[in-house]
Amino acid sequence: MVRRPRQLLRRPDRAVSGVGDLAVPPGATWDDLAPDLRGLLDASPHAPRAVTLATSGSSGTPKRVRLPGAALRASGEATAALLGGHGRWVLALPTHHVAGLQVLARSALAGTDPVALEPGAPFTAEAFARAVDRLGTPSTSAPLRLVSLVPTQLARLLDHAAGTRALQEIDAVLLGGAAADAGLLGRAREAGARVVTTYGMSETSGGCVYDGAPLRDVRVRVEEDGRVSLGGPVLAEGYADRPDLTAERFRTDADGTRWFRTDDRGVWRAGRLTVLGRLDDVIVTGGHKVEPRDVETALRRLPGVSDALVVGVADPEWGHRVAALLVPSGQPLPTDRLRRSLSPGLPRHAVPRQVVWRDSLPLLESGKPDRAAARELLGEG
Questions:
Q1: Are 175 and 238 in the same domain?
Q2: What is the pLDDT of residue 122?
Q3: How far apart (Å, rounded) are the C-alpha atoms in residues 165 and 130?
């Protein structure tokens, strides 16, 4: 990989406030970013004032979020407190998105060097196993072996003996970026993987709710309409060059508590937050509301279905039809048989009217499902 000069990573941004932010381009490495990250986290006088990075674009056009060092430090220290200490990380995600950047920031806080997969190589179980082998012996100050993954990566590792063995060597797998299917989590735990589900976004310095419980000093509020709002020291300052959007999404209560209003719906169940999906993901078909995640979970339980992505597609008769992109495990099921298999557990209006099989699901660069691409594929059918 061609190394870019470090000075290109620094860029003066007319942001929420201040100039001289650290901008993280695609392909940035630990060696590129480590000095500036350490200075940022320590609030050194000549260090960047904040990191500016793009959101994943799952809600449309990516936005540039401005994360101050104090927010990254609060997130990293709270994560270490929950996991039982700092550690050495495997870097398996892009550094120009928040989950990969956090691996670097947490490494800087721990005083360790992360182990990256081979530059430019696709994510494979063999490459992950080699990276885990290179972690070496844990130290007294950083006793843990850690990794952040998205569900698609975890599934690939569990499908491979070497990947499964490598997972067993990891003290905590932080799983985020997309909803984790109960079946996948069950497989991982049966295989001996220690998985912690995470929920958060770029605007909250990445995951800030672990296994349904907020990190230290993080606050969660579910509004009357089900919208999840998040508060605490992990929040971004706002969006670079977008004071209007910053004012819309970041609100301050009369008591001074600052909140970020997400696009997600959630409920409290047994004292833990359950995220139901995005506010705009609900499918209204024939006057009925359908939760895509409920349908996806039911589909993944069927024999012959490896993965599923459910979206609403415009339909002249129903307003929207429930449509599913499926990845087969073995021979794909005939559509009529698949629909009959779903009927006992799902109401009739939630059973997909359209099913398309693909070798893989469309994903954003961050690893999240690309629902816009899925709608386009299914709309063509």
A1: yes
A2: 84
A3: 11
- Is the pTM for the entire model greater than 0.70? yes
Q: What is the pLDDT of residue 381?
A: 55
* One domain for residues 194 and 47: yes
Residue 302: which CATH number?
Answer: 3.30.300.30
Look at residues 236, 251, 272 and tell me which one is the last residue of a structural domain: 272
pLDDT at 355: 95
Q: What is the pLDDT of residue 89?
A: 97
Query: 280 and 320 in contact (C-beta within 8 Å)?
Result: no
pLDDT of residue 202: 95
- pLDDT at position 1 is 37
Decide: 82 and 146 in contact? Cβ < 8 Å: no
Domain that holds residue 361: 282-380
The DSSP code for 363 is B
Distance CA 139, CA 197 (A): 25
Question: Cα 127 to the chain's mean position, in Å?
Answer: 21
Number of structural domains, the chain? 2
Q: Which residues in the chain show pLDDT less than 50?
A: 1-19
Distance CA 34, CA 67 (A): 16
Q: Which residue type occupies 100?
A: G
Q: Are 233 and 70 in contact (CB under 8 A)?
A: yes
Task: Tell me how far apart the alpha carbons of residues 168 and 165 are, in angstroms, rounded to a whole number.
Answer: 5
Q: What is the residue whose two structure tokens read 């339980």?
A: 301
